[in-house]
Task: structure prediction
Amino acid sequence: MSVNGARWHGFDTSCPRVDISDEVRSGENDLRVRVASSLNNRLLARGYYDDTTDFLAMMLAGESLPQQTQVRDHGLLGPVRLLRIGQDAAVVDDQSSEGELQEA
Result:
C-alpha cells in the first residue's frame, strides 16, 4: 500500500497493519492498496496443473493422475480502515468498516 505517492509498504498478512504516520497529512490523502492473487491461482489460470502429475497419488496408489486444485480466495477479504494511535500515528488495518477512522 502507498499513501500520497510515498514508497510502497508491504506487510505480514498474519498481522495486516502498516504504520503510515509519516505519509498522512491534514486534509485529503490518497491511499492505494495493491493486491495480488495466490501462486496457486496464477498457476491454475496458466494451465500449469494440466500437465502436472499428482505425485502423492502416484506414491500412495501407484496411479498417474493429473494434479487437482481449485481457485482459492485472495486479495482483500475485508474492508480497509484507518486507526489513529495517539496524537501523531495512523495505522491501516483491514478488520472493520471501510473508510473508518478510529482512535485506538
Observations:
- Confidence is low (pLDDT under 50) at residues 96-104.
- DSSP finds two helices and six strands in the chain.
